[in-house]
Design a protein that fits this description.
The protein is of the alpha+beta class and 456 residues long. The chain has two domains: 3-95, no CATH class; 129-453, no CATH class. The chain has 15 helices and 20 strands. It has helices spanning 3-12, 38-42, 68-75, 101-108, 126-132, 146-153, 176-186, 193-203, 210-215, 229-233, 248-263, 299-302, 331-343, 362-370, 375-385; strands at 17-19, 31-33, 47-48, 50-55, 58-64, 66-67, 87-88, 91-92, 163-167, 172-175, 221-227, 285-288, 311-317, 321-324, 354-360, 388-389, 412-413, 421-425, 433-441, 450-453. Strand 4 (50-55) and strand 5 (58-64) form a beta hairpin. It is elongated, with a radius of gyration of 29 Å.
Length: 456
């Protein structure tokens, strides 16, 4: 359509025409074939036609598509295309074709990656090779090709060589690029990368104590609780089966963190990882809170972080267990049910040493919300019901050797420290259930939950 306009411009002054596909079109003025799309890539051409005004190799201005007024202003030539409509938007450039863009990023983007390249023989199975080298977590991982890693890096504005954290137990620095490699292997999409980076930052802190979480014989691992509008933007699940399988973001973000700890930090089972039994969540345990409908705000809010922000909270926890109460219709009755189940975590006679997250489902939460109980009231009432006379908890009481040392008299001891019982809101709308995630040893001897804002 614009060939007559190109001829007008060629007659009026110097003009170079580039074509992306057909070297014989147009024949006048003759076009230069951008056969490898290098010029289109480096000039960020998104639409054809794009008209650029260049002086001494420097682009001064451009116009995209066909708009007579803009073309005349840019070229200084009036009366262009008198027989053409005044405006047409143009077509997509081949250099932004989804089937080509990853390859072009590698070919023309310049090598920003610093990681060691591993050559794979033509007859070698990539998946088996990664198993044999110890890079996998027991399940197949996605080969982290340069194309895939560069595509993942488009999910963040952070520089590939920026150091994100020092990863236990080997205390190895991990860069954004290395985290992106783990995210590729885990199956992440580019938009998940900021969440993985925040999780790595949170887990690799003294407060969380990743080394201790690995070395303990208890079955704990990082549990990622995500909140904020970004969870919905990337399609995380906070409703039906939120703690289960089936959602790509939930499944891969937590897995990417574990692969960083394994492959960068050296945290492998049977070596530093000494869990007696472990739990399936050690592959990756990540879910989103339903902060839109929650009557209790967010877990991040309970920890002092802005409830409207995108946040990852990392908690050292075991596999979740279900609390069934389908008959309680008063908050007092339901609080009693929940407290009875919280009391038995790890052992009913062990108190103050462990934290827990209560993941309340919508039907249970509704009982409290309709009675006007907010987060603070729910937690306060649970604490009150969890106090137990020390005599019933001492070693030997009830003919059970396990328990706390003697010497506390008859004082009532709480199950949790004041900040040791946390509340999250997630799950499907049907089902009078809640879930409990028991934690590892708390405080300076163990791990504290850590919340990190997501940086894009």
């Amino acid at each position: 359509m614009v060939v007559p306009v190109l001829r007008q411009l060629a007659e009026a002054g110097e003009l170079t025409v580039y074509t992306q596909d057909d070297p014989d079109f147009p024949d006048a003025p003759r076009a230069v074939l951008d056969d490898d799309l290098a010029l289109s890539w480096h000039h960020a051409i998104e639409t054809v036609p794009t008209l650029l005004r260049v002086r001494d190799g420097v682009e001064l201005e451009r116009t995209v598509g066909w708009l007579r007024m803009s073309w005349e202003e840019l070229t200084g030539v009036e009366g262009l295309g008198p027989d053409l409509p005044p405006f047409r938007p143009g077509c997509g450039s081949m250099s932004v074709d989804p089937d080509l863009v990853d390859e072009l990023r590698v070919r023309h983007g310049g090598s920003v990656l610093r990681s060691r390249r591993v050559d794979v023989a033509a007859a070698e199975d990539e998946l088996e090779m990664m198993f044999n080298r110890g890079w996998a977590d027991g399940l197949p991982v996605v080969p982290p090709t340069e194309q895939r890693v560069l595509a993942l890096l488009t999910g963040t504005s952070r520089a590939p060589d920026e150091i994100v954290a020092t990863v236990p137990p080997d205390l190895a620095d991990v860069s954004v690029e290395k985290v992106a490699i783990a995210a590729v292997m885990a199956g992440c999409k580019p938009e998940y990368l900021p969440w993985v980076l925040a999780a790595v930052e949170a887990a690799c802190t003294d407060e969380f104590n990743m080394h201790g979480v690995l070395a303990t014989t208890m079955p704990v691992a990082p549990v990622l609780v995500c909140s904020g509008p970004g969870t919905r933007a990337i399609g995380m699940e906070s409703g039906v089966n939120a703690l289960g399988q089936g959602n790509r973001a939930n499944s891969t973000i937590g897995r990417a963190l574990q692969l960083v700890v394994r492959n960068v930090g050296g945290g492998r089972p049977g070596e530093v990882d000494r869990a007696t039994h472990g739990n399936p969540g050690k592959l990756g345990f990540c879910f989103a809170e339903n902060d839109v409908d929650s009557p209790f705000g967010t877990l991040a809010g309970q920890l002092g972080v802005d409830t409207g922000a995108d946040v990852v909270t990392v908690f050292a926890g075991e596999a979740p267990r279900c609390v069934v109460d389908q008959l309680s219709r008063t908050p007092e009755s339901l609080a009693g049910s929940l407290a009875a189940q919280l009391q038995v975590l790890h052992h009913h006679k062990l108190v103050l040493a462990f934290d827990a997250i209560l993941v309340m489902g919508p039907e249970h939460a509704r009982v409290f919300a309709e009675a006007g109980w907010d987060r603070d009231r729910v937690i306060t009432e649970l604490h009150a019901r969890l106090a137990t006379p020390a005599g019933a908890l001492t070693r030997g009481a009830g003919d059970i050797a396990e328990g706390i040392p003697a010497g506390f008299g008859d004082v009532a001891l709480p199950k949790f420290t004041p900040n040791g019982l946390m509340l999250a809101y997630a799950g499907g709308g049907a089902g009078l259930f809640s879930m409990i995630i028991a934690g590892w040893v708390n405080g300076d001897r163990g791990s504290r939950p850590v919340a990190r804002l997501v940086r894009y």
